Amino acid sequence: MPATSTTNASPDERVVMHDVSWDAFESILRERGDVSGPRVTYLEGTLELMSPSRDHEVIRKRFSVVVEAYLNQLKIVYEGAGAWLLKNAPKQAGLEPDECYILHDVSKPRPDLALEVVWTSGGIDKLEVYRRLGVGEVWFWSDDEVTVHVLTGAGYELRSASACLPGFDFSIVQEMMALPSLSAVYLALAERLARR
Q1: What is the CATH number of the domain that holds 127?
Q2: Cα–Cα distance between 66 and 62 in angstroms, integer?
Q3: DSSP string covering 34-52, please?
Q4: Residue 174, SS3?
Q5: Contacts of 114 (CB under 8 A, 6+ apart)
Q6: DSSP 3-state assignment of 16?
Q7: Each residue's pLDDT tens digit, 53-95
Q8: 68 to each of 20, 71, 87, 101, how far by Cα in Å?
Q9: Which of 24, 102, 134, 187 has its CA 20 to 30 A from that of 73?
Q10: Containing structural domain, residue 189
Q11: Quick one: pLDDT band at residue 121, thresholds 50, 70, 90?
């Protein structure tokens, strides 16, 4: 079954709580500790806990594999930071991306690029959270396509091309999602990149 098939698709599990103070949010994070648990998103008193489904994670993995293959092909220095907890108390915002990358100078305190898979609708406005956290670019996979959001002085602008990775071919992501397995994705990327 292709990763994006909605036949027998498993939904993400979400819990949304309201009127959660920043201190309560920090307390929940401390209680959770370093153990892998539900991904958190927090915005001005609203807290979402999300446990991604298998389908969500299959898409996330393929999405990140394509991005990393592109970065490797261009020999761009990068660090993948996964679901790195990003938070800013004064701006009342925090989240764990599906995947994120620091490009060029890997000591930067914030990622340059975040990837998000929208598999189950609803929840907190993640672009607003990312804006408050100052993440330069966010790519969303939703409804079998990628949308690119670039941070400007006025907020995020929807663009047809990436500012941080100019020339990235988003059609490759769609092609890789249609393949039957992750091993097929790796083989197809290797063949494609060998032709360059």
Answers
A1: 3.90.1570.10
A2: 6
A3: TS---EEEEETTEEEEEE-
A4: helix
A5: 97, 98, 99, 100, 101, 130, 135, 137, 138, 139
A6: strand
A7: 999 999 999 999 999 999 999 999 999 999 999 999 999 999 9
A8: 36, 5, 25, 9
A9: 134
A10: 53-194
A11: low
Give the number of domains in the chain.
1
Distance from CA of residue 71 to its chain's centroid? 16
What is d(CA 89, CA 107) in angstroms, rounded to the nearest whole number? 21
Q: Give pLDDT tens digits for 138-196.
A: 999 998 999 999 999 999 999 999 999 999 999 999 999 999 999 999 999 999 877 76
Kindly state whether residue 98 falls inside one of the protein's structural domains.
yes
35 CA to centre of own chain:
20
Nearest by Cα to 94 from 13, 53, 162, 39: 39
What pTM value is reported for the model?
A: 0.91
> Cα(39)–Cα(56) distance, rounded to whole angstroms?
12
Residue 2 lies in a domain: no
Let me know if residue 32 belongs to a domain.
Answer: no
